[in-house]
């Protein structure tokens, strides 16, 4: 036989085995098959690509340099366009929206609290709390929303009974809102391992917050007076939201953020002609103000000429089948477990209180979205490949033995 033909005959089983393996490996696992159906807000939000459905007369989306973003109608909850809506990233100070959603219903803004040494010494952006000095909670909320004061956020958490308790409640509120991409491990958003959120979840927080009169007032204030660190009197504090500070038409808030790990993050809202739009961005690589303005301007001009790609779900909405209470949700499941773990971490290391620690820019996904239904298929593939390999070895071995015998 021609040696080339013999080579082909020996390689035939190997080629067949490879083909079988490729076919099997190309069969999507159960997790892959159900992922889009299990995406909170709709399957149009799955994946990392830009999502928009333009109708006749709609202009193309502007070029926005950010890792992820969401543009939504605050009234209807319809998402007009998005990019990587569920990508989990460090949230920076936009997480303070969740702190406010958690504590505003629990604390009387007219109440007072004394700043602790721990709160006054927190690193990062501070309003300048003085340990032992009494502040009204109303003053602290303005400090949280305007200059994004980390010390004020800690003081409010302590007024609520402690950082650990507040974090447990924050994670439960996130779960109730169906913000399942969010794990809170600080009340101020400082970089901490394992803490993450998404542009979708930030939009949920902003929308829910704007329904609260106090939240909307703090988030929509450009400047106010705050007590001096030493002595009597006050000084002016300003918002870090440049759209609000510069008086962009219709701007009504809500929260900025920046850390070395998260980069620049933003949640903004504007109201024009009876319509309120929310924009959230994470990993912004251009001017935050410019990116937000481009999306909001496009939304106001083209919002009626697009088909929504998803929706901001309502608080307590039914979960997709794979994420319901049988898979660990509810008070005794995912949210409570995350809160308990966070509280234990806070008590053991102080990270949740001090905000110290680094962590990656894009923490690994965690929680109820994780599943492994593809494992049985992997086992089948492995078994078939092993069997195919045995066939290949036998096929290769026989000609080899023949050659040795002939040459002896």
Task: Characterise this structure.
The structure is a single chain. By secondary structure, the protein is an alpha+beta fold. It folds into two domains: 3-29 and 374-407; 51-354, Beta-lactamase. Helices cover 40% and strands 16% of the residues. It has 14 helices and 13 strands. It has helices at 3-25, 30-35, 96-103, 117-120, 137-145, 150-159, 163-176, 199-210, 213-219, 242-245, 288-302, 334-349, 351-354, 375-407; strands at residues 50-51, 53-54, 66-73, 78-83, 112-114, 134-136, 223-227, 234-238, 251-259, 263-272, 275-284, 306-307, 310-311. Strands 1, 3, 4, 9, 10, 11 and 13 form a seven-stranded antiparallel beta sheet that branches. Strands 2-12 form a two-stranded antiparallel ribbon. Strand 9 (251-259) and strand 10 (263-272) form a beta hairpin. Helix 1 runs antiparallel to helix 14, helix 5 runs antiparallel to helix 6 and helix 7 packs antiparallel against helix 12. The longest helix has 33 residues, at 375-407. It is globular. The two termini are 20 Å apart. The model is unreliable at 1-36, 326-334, 347-383 and 390-408 (pLDDT under 50).
């Amino acid at each position: 036989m021609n040696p080339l033909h013999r080579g082909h005959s020996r390689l035939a089983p190997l080629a067949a085995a490879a083909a079988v393996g490729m076919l099997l490996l190309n069969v999507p696992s159960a997790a892959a098959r159900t992922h889009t159906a299990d995406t909170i807000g709709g399957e149009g939000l799955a994946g990392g690509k830009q999502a928009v459905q333009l109708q006749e007369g709609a202009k193309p989306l502007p070029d926005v340099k950010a890792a992820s973003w969401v543009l939504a109608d605050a009234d209807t909850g319809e998402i007009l366009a998005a990019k990587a809506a569920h990508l989990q990233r460090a949230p920076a100070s936009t997480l303070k929206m969740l702190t406010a959603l958690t504590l505003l219903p629990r604390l009387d803004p007219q109440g007072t609290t004394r700043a602790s040494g721990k709160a006054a010494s927190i690193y990062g952006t501070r309003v300048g709390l003085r340990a032992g000095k009494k502040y009204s909670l109303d003053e602290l909320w303005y400090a949280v929303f305007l200059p994004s004061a980390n010390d004020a956020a800690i003081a409010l958490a302590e007024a609520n009974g402690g950082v650990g308790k507040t974090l447990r409640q924050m994670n439960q509120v996130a779960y109730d809102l169906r913000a399942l991409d969010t794990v809170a491990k600080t009340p101020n958003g400082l970089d901490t391992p394992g803490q993450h959120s998404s542009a979708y979840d930030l939009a949920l927080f902003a929308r829910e917050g704007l329904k609260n009169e106090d939240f909307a007032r703090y988030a929509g204030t450009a400047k106010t007076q705050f007590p001096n660190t030493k002595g009597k009197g006050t000084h002016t504090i300003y918002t870090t939201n440049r759209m609000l500070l510069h008086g962009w038409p219709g701007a009504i808030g809500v929260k900025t953020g920046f850390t070395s790990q998260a980069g620049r993050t933003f949640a903004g809202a504007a109201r024009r002609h009876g319509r309120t739009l929310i924009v959230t961005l994470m990993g912004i690589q251009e001017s935050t103000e410019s990116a937000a303005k481009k999306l909001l301007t496009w939304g106001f001009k083209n919002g009626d000429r697009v088909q929504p790609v998803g929706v901001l779900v309502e608080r307590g909405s039914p979960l997709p089948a794979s994420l319901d209470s049988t898979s660990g949700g509810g008070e005794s499941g995912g949210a409570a477990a995350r809160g308990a773990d966070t509280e234990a971490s806070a008590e053991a290391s102080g990270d949740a209180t001090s905000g110290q620690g680094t962590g990656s820019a894009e923490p690994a996904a965690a929680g109820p979205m994780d599943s492994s239904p593809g494992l049985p298929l992997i086992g089948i593939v492995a078994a078939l490949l092993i069997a195919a390999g045995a066939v290949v070895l036998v096929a290769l071995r026989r000609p080899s033995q023949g050659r040795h015998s002939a040459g002896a």
